[in-house]
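wait is this the right file?? whatever heres the structure
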């Protein structure tokens, strides 16, 4: 079991390299081991391209070793024809002695069929090695296929005394609560998610672009709402630099259902408070990423002396991690 965990850990590391490039497929890594040595590795690099198992098999120089080898793979090998042929058939054809699978595939066209076919062909198949880690890695894919909605991440920054903004005029630029390292990290996150969402007030108040500029990666689909036709044609969110969807007569549940039908597997919600509070009230969220600035409300520029905008109050969360990002800025990540 200790060696199984060691090799599966490596497969999980490889799987992470596909982040932001494989949706709506899952991130998958695979390792081929013979006589306690890794002789091949691979991961799913891009949607529509060969799967992890195919790349791992292709990296092995001596085909005669397959009959003595074990394949470690972070997700059940597929059993259907999609963009690529079934991976379970490849492992059967190559004559692997054993296959170790971290988790069963929740996708309806697989859902245990790949495991069944390999066992029927005489391969030893063990399932559940580092399953918890594999489930977390592909939490977007799992949520999409089990709850039939996108995985929803709430992201915001607040002052140390609990405010996300002051009572400035909309024409007054917001004070940055975090520095460049946090900004670059957020742009990396954008590249990793399928969509990014903000409310109407955020569009009018901050005029955000919601594109990836401080990281190398794809722009996510930009999503907002405009039920009263208030967003001007000059708004950056509809500047043509990335695809945008503006919902005009939809509830949040309807919006998430529409995005699910479009194949949007994950959404990062960047504000504002009203949108976040509505999502929290409906329970339509999975993860919260909170930046905590050393600044206080009184440090923010352009305030008119009134109350600021308080950060969302989200209860019953489990703290997953907490670390420093740049100078004096803390990042807390919670899961529901």
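ok assuming it is, sequence goes like this
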């Amino acid at each position: 079991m200790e060696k199984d965990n060691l090799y599966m850990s490596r497969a999980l590391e490889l799987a992470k390299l596909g982040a932001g490039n494989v949706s709506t497929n899952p991130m998958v890594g695979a390792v081929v081991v013979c006589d306690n040595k890794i002789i091949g590795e691979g991961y799913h690099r891009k949607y529509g391209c060969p799967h992890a198992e195919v790349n791992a098999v292709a990296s092995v120089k001596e085909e005669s070793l397959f009959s003595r080898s074990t394949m470690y793979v972070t997700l059940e090998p597929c059993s259907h024809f999609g963009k690529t042929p079934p991976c379970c058939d490849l492992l059967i054809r190559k004559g692997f002695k054993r296959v170790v699978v971290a988790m069963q595939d929740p996708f309806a066209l697989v859902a245990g069929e790949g495991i069944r076919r390999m066992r029927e062909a005489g391969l030893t198949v063990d399932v559940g090695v580092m399953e918890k880690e594999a489930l977390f890695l592909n939490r977007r894919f799992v949520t999409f296929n089990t709850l039939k909605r996108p995985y929803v991440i709430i992201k915001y920054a607040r002052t140390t005394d609990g405010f996300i903004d002051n009572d400035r005029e909309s024409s007054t630029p917001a004070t940055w609560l975090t520095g460049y390292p946090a900004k670059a990290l957020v742009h990396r996150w954008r590249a990793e998610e399928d969509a990014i969402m903000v409310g109407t007030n955020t569009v009018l108040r901050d005029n955000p672009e919601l594109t990836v500029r401080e990281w190398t990666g794809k722009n996510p689909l930009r999503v907002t709402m405009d039920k009263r036709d208030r967003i001007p044609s000059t708004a950056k969110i509809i500047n043509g630099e990335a695809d945008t969807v503006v919902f005009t007569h939809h509830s949040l549940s309807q919006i998430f259902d529409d995005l699910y039908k479009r194949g949007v597997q994950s959404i990062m919600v960047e504000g504002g408070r009203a949108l976040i509070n509505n999502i929290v009230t409906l329970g339509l969220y999975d993860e919260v990423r909170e930046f905590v600035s050393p600044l206080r409300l009184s440090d923010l520029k352009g305030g008119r002396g009134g109350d600021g905008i308080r950060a969302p109050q989200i209860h019953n969360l489990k703290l997953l991690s907490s670390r420093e990002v740049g100078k004096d800025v803390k990042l807390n990540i919670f899961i529901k």
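Residues 99 and 332 are 37 Å apart (CA to CA). so i think its the right one actually
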